[in-house]
Amino acid sequence: MGVRDDAGLDYSRSRVVVAARAAGLAPPTQSVHPDIRDLDGLMASCAHGRALGFLGRAAIHPRQLPVIEKAYLPTQREIEQAETVIKAAAMNQGAQALPNGTFIDTAVVTAAQRTLTLAQKN
Q1: Could you read off the pLDDT of 7-43 as tens digits, one per residue?
Q2: What's the rounded Cα separation, in Å, for the pair 2 and 92?
Q3: For 64, which of 47, 59, 71, 87 could close a Cys bridge (C-beta 3.0–4.6 Å)?
Q4: Which InterPro entries does the UniProt entry name for this protein (predicted)?
Q5: What's the CA gap between 1 and 58, in Å, rounded?
Q6: Rounded Cα gap, residues 85 and 111, in angstroms
């Protein structure tokens, strides 16, 4: 394909994420990061993959595991946001706007539930 860097694969990767979701599957995992010494590059690549919709990553060396785990586990802020969404959804069924103006619906509530499930694994 002549792709010179990872950005050239964004379209294909996004299609994989969308296809998995359309099929009712869990978010896919990213493929391996081939440079076992480049942990900063691994972190950046994981962050980009997470932004594309991936959930997790395959590793080829044990030193990569803590970086991958940190990249894919929710942050404290994400946990707090998810808790806010879940509390609001429990009080009012259906789509609604939170006091801060954020719109939530079933898809947002499902994502919040997934966030809290991941947080419990930490």
Answers
A1: 889 999 999 999 999 999 999 999 999 999 999 999 9
A2: 51
A3: 59
A4: C-C_Bond_Lyase-like, Pyrv/PenolPyrv_kinase-like_dom, Pyrv_kinase-like_dom_sf
A5: 23
A6: 10
| Token pair recorded at residue 54 | 């991936």
- What is this structure's pTM? 0.82
Find how far residue 54's CA is from the centre of its chain. 5
Q: Which letter, b or e, does each residue of 110-120 get, where b requires 16 or more Cβ atoms within 10 Å of its Cβ?
A: eebeebeebbe
Task: Note the pLDDT tens digit of each residue in 46-85.
Answer: 999 999 999 999 999 999 999 999 999 999 999 999 999 9
Written as one string, the DSSP assignment of 6-65 is GGGGHHHHHHHHHHHHHTTPPPPPB---S-TT-HHHHHHHHHHHHHHT---B--SSGGGH
